[in-house]
Specification:
This protein has 426 residues and is mainly alpha-helical.
């Protein structure tokens, strides 16, 4: 395992694409272990593609791009602005609400943050918001997409860890809403102290709120239909991805009447690029996952943790600290694919619910995208807003502290996460 890890780390430092770094590290294991023929490695790559649940990934990625071309984003923005722009830090509150609503559309933190940087960033600057504050709010609020269904990360966690994706989707709703709440409170407190208050802003009237909600009804209805269809047994999580594509097509073409052939072509072009990148990483991770199982890494790690810690909550807490640190240096997709096969057997052996763990894991590894030194989401937002990294880091500290406190609360009180899936599925 040491050689595999060393090869992977060296290749990443040399700048090799992640998928190839994983693949070469996996082949290194099969060429040097002296027991397993290299043909097994090739078979593991092929075996990773033979999974029905994995179909959810390309379907939801395509659906997200189609919805962005279907006029949904503009309607969600109008609804969010009407609902919360009157508050202190109004545009920051709009960003957080929009991330919550877009989580059910894009399923991607980076895509959500990039979109909001283009839409909200210039307006926040015109209204006198500090660039660091604007960048921190936009980047950290996109973390909500890690748990609000249909999160691509939860799909991958469920696929690799053999955990119910339907239960994961339902489990992510309450943590996502709680994250929205703590971020809104944090943004409000900072904005009040800074004076980011529009003296002319007024609370929305009910007719205005009803009008913008009605305009955005198809976008607001989508997460509800997604959850109800899975809970009612109408679709599996994989099949509901196909439903999402059809839904986006019908909404864009017939309800909003803005989806044209050119927009459809752009959706497919962008989706093919994203799907190709994700699937190549997934396929190559099959060899590493096999090596982890063959070398009994989960069993040895479990024995090591159980020797020093007896309380399941403390064991999971130690794992979460490791995941947070790992998230600072590696992209979330990599960590989910490589570490889920290691940690899920460990937390199951101590009696901890894997659905509960999946929500906490996805929150922390996705948080790494918003933090130095290699945060993809952080660099995306800062480059689009022309914001200095040091300004971003300083302004993000209150939001980061709020998210970490929420993770601790969710760890200590598991029913906040498990209430909905237990109610729906038993």
């Amino acid at each position: 395992m040491g050689l595999l890890s060393a090869v992977f780390a060296v290749l990443l430092v040399l700048g090799l694409p992640v998928a190839f770094a994983i693949g070469i590290a996996g082949f290194t294991f099969f060429m040097t272990n002296g027991v397993m023929p290299i043909q097994i490695g090739v078979q593991r790559i092929a075996a990773m593609s033979q999974s029905f649940p994995l179909l959810a990934v390309p379907f939801f990625v395509l659906a997200g791009h189609m919805m962005n071309e279907s006029g949904i984003t503009e309607r969600l923005f109008a609804f969010s602005r009407t609902a919360v722009a009157w508050m202190a830090g109004g545009l920051a509150q709009v960003s957080i609400i929009l991330s919550t609503l877009m989580g059910g559309v894009s399923g991607s933190a980076v895509a959500d943050a990039a979109m909001e940087s283009r839409v909200l960033g210039p307006e926040m600057e015109r209204e006198g918001y500090a660039r660091g504050y604007s960048a921190a709010v936009i980047a950290l609020s996109s973390l909500i997409t890690s748990t609000i269904p249909p999160s691509i990360g939860l799909i991958l966690f469920g696929f690799v860890g053999e955990v119910s994706i339907g239960r994961l989707f339902l489990a992510g709703i309450v943590p996502g809403l709680l994250m929205m709440t703590v971020l809104m409170v944090t943004a409000w407190l900072v904005a009040r102290r800074r004076g980011y208050v529009d003296p002319e802003a007024e609370k929305p009237t009910m007719p205005a709120l009803r009008r913008t909600a009605w305009d955005a009804k198809w976008a607001l209805l989508f997460p509800v239909l997604l959850i109800v269809s899975i809970r009612g047994g109408l679709f599996t999580p994989s099949e509901v991805g196909a439903f999402a594509v059809v839904y986006a097509l019908l909404v864009g073409r017939f309800a909003h009447k803005v989806l044209r052939l050119e927009g459809l072509r752009r959706s497919f072009d962008d989706a093919v690029t994203d799907i190709g990148m994700i699937m190549l990483i997934i396929l190559m991770s099959g060899m590493v996952g096999f090596a982890i199982t063959f070398l009994r890494v989960p069993q040895e790690l479990s024995e090591f943790l159980l020797e020093g810690l007896k309380n399941p909550t403390l064991i999971v807490g130690a794992i979460l600290v490791f995941l947070f640190v790992a998230g600072l240096f590696f992209e979330s997709t990599i960590l989910v694919l490589l570490l889920t096969p290691i940690f899920v057997p460990v937390i199951r052996s101590v009696g901890f619910d894997p659905v509960h763990f999946g929500i906490l894991m996805m929150t922390l590894v996705t948080l790494g995208s918003m933090t130095p030194p290699v945060g993809v989401c952080m660099y995306t937002v800062c480059s689009l807003l022309n914001c200095r990294i040091e300004d971003y880091v300083r302004e993000s500290l209150p939001f980061l502290a709020a998210v970490l406190m929420l993770v601790v609360v969710l760890l200590i009180f598991p029913q906040l996460v498990l209430f909905l899936p237990n109610w729906a599925f038993g």
